[in-house]
Amino acid sequence: MAISYIPVYGIIQNMENVSGQCCQQLVTLRTEEGVVRLILDPDTYVIGSIRLRPGMSVAAFYDGNAPVPLIYPPQYRALIIGQRNPLENIAVNFFDSTLTASDNSLKLNPGPSTNVITSNGQRFSCSLANQTLIVYYRATTRSIPPQTTPRKIIVLCK
């Protein structure tokens, strides 16, 4: 089954190690819906390898198909997390041969100013089709699916 990237947007309130696990951290976010806890482990992709800290606005993505414990506050294993500019949207999805997201939520129209890189920061000059992409964008059209010219695309090469 394909990964279904579900976003969580919020402000980091607290960060702590998971009960003696030095390579896992529990991040508490304040979101519009309330408190959410995220587990970050060595497999979590931190966009740009930035150092996360309390007070930072972030976007995190977890697998909507993965099992989660029925606890409050909700707790998810973060697959991807990165700093977020409140004036910009971040989407993660698989984009097909027409650069349409697998859930039909977005269609990409990359322009000459779109910065396209790999997850390790290198330039990506191959086709964006049939790839999982992290997309930074602002405005979209009112069409279905909404269309955008992204500012930045990160290709998650697998």
Quick description:
This protein is an all-beta fold and 158 residues long. It contains no helices and twelve strands.
Write up what this structure looks like.
The structure is a single chain. The protein is an all-beta fold and 158 residues long. Strands 1-2-3-6-5 form a 5-stranded mixed barrel. A 4-stranded mixed beta sheet has the order 7-10-12-9, with no helix packed on it. Strands 8-11 form a two-stranded parallel sheet. The two termini are 16 Å apart. The mean pLDDT is 95.
How are the SSEs placed, and which strands pair?
Layout: E1 5-18, E2 21-31, E3 34-40, E4 45-46, E5 57-63, E6 75-83, E7 89-95, E8 107-108, E9 115-118, E10 131-137, E11 147-148, E12 152-155
Parallel strand pairs: 3-6, 4-6, 8-11, 9-12
Antiparallel strand pairs: 1-2, 1-5, 2-3, 5-6, 7-10, 10-12
